[in-house]
Task: structure prediction
Amino acid sequence: MSKPTVTNPWITATVAAATETPEVPDTRPSPPPATMMPTRPHPGAVPPPQDGGLPIRHLHPNEQAPWWWLGCHGGAGVGMLGATFPAGRDAHRHWPVPVDGTFASVLLVARTNVPGLRAAQTAARQWASGAVPQVRLLGLVAVADAPGTLPKPLRDLVKLVAGAFPRTWAIPWIEPWRFGETPPIAQLPKSLARLAGDLSHVVARN
Result:
């Protein structure tokens, strides 16, 4: 079966180095070292969330994508990320679980407010508990919920939640997204360029 065609020029960007530090604002505490971050589920060691977490949808055999955007809550920013990186597909707030023994690569998406970060934390716990074993969790895309620097309580919560993911990308406030516009690549922040480099690696691996 042919692989999906990648039309966004950013997805051909140079692959970021494997040891690159997650993109975060200068005032934000750095996430834990990569060696401390989970790269696979730990069934039995991590209890599932009490509310059950996000629903699961079993994929039809012809449903394929280099990666899936999974919004942890409504308004997470999946729509604009999908417009910027059209090679990925929207999972519509369901874990996309293959039934043919393959794996689905998933990026969770959440806003950097308390409800959004808590929703991301719950989804990460669901994955870590082994509830979605056919999912390869790539990390969390934390999308700014407002312009400017995050208040310290939110910076601390981002650091805490980031420790539950293999990697975290912090996306600053992008004003044109507010109006449903996708700016030219040259006008987008470097954090999105770094995300593009990492996604190009996902495409190559798949």
